[in-house]
Amino acid sequence: MQNPATSLKALLNQKKLIVSPGIFDMVSLKIADQFDFPCLYMTGYGTVASYLGLPDAGLATYSDMVNRVQAFCSATSTPIICDGDTGYGGLLNVAHTVDGYIRAGAAGIQLEDQQFPKKCGHTKGRRVIAARDMAAKIRVAVDARAGRDDFLIIARTDARTSLGLDEALRRADSYLQAGADVLFVESPESREELEAIGRRFDVPLVVNIVEGGKTPQPSAQELEQMGFSLAIHPGLGFLAMGRALESAYGQLKKAGDSVGYTDLADFEMFSRLMGFQKVWDFDDKYKDLETMQ
């Protein structure tokens, strides 16, 4: 079986836009995976919210996140890029995080230059560390993956919001020089800024499309023409889920039952997606043995 990281690196080198949905729990993973996306993205916002019921504001630990990385990656052969926040500490922590994410099966890790505690990239209050300190983290991350060069190091800068686009671009340059494979300039605020990012770099670039966030939403074709290699949609799944649950639970509260509520997945098909077919097949195969007990 091909290493997911190897296949992802090859895809990025084709310089065609990869569209990647955000996954945040095992149900979203299984649903997304049935559509054969070439890559999945483990969203920090959604994962922290679904796993801990907390905001993505530096409250999740390395142990919390690597637990989710291992669970997600063990359930699919599709490459998953996993949010590694700030690396969960200093340089030693960054090395430990990279090694742990590789062992857990991630195809790549996203590391960002925010101060601790970090915050979601499309929310208020983000501050960044010195560019040289982030470049040091990237160098350590590259060294930590030694011998596993297909594992991607994605360097994200959050400097645009507080320090402007020019500083964000300078930082991305320095992170590239430090050894990053993929660059991620978070929260550009116009199409012109997206175009400037695409013109500046001839390496794989990430664009973060958050429905309702700070960045505009060009079409996939437009993003590819701008020079982006990977468009992640981290919030699409949990925002859709939130709206659907509000509707369903609201109906239940209002009516006291779900009679006539039809905006639902088919129960049997959903059960098969969750793996019940294997349970049913097992029961059929060994039903005679059960009667002997």
Characterization of the model:
By secondary structure, this protein is α/β, with parallel strands linked by helices. The chain folds into 2 domains: 4-241, Phosphoenolpyruvate-binding domains (TIM Barrel, Alpha-Beta Barrel), CATH 3.20.20.60; 266-293, no CATH class. The protein has 13 helices and 8 strands. It has helices at 4-13, 26-33, 44-52, 62-74, 91-104, 131-144, 159-163, 165-177, 191-200, 220-226, 236-255, 267-273, 276-291; strands at residues 18-23, 40-42, 80-83, 108-112, 152-157, 182-185, 205-208, 230-233. Strands 1-2-3-4-5-6-7-8 form an 8-stranded parallel barrel, surrounded by 9 helices. The longest helix has 20 residues, at 236-255.
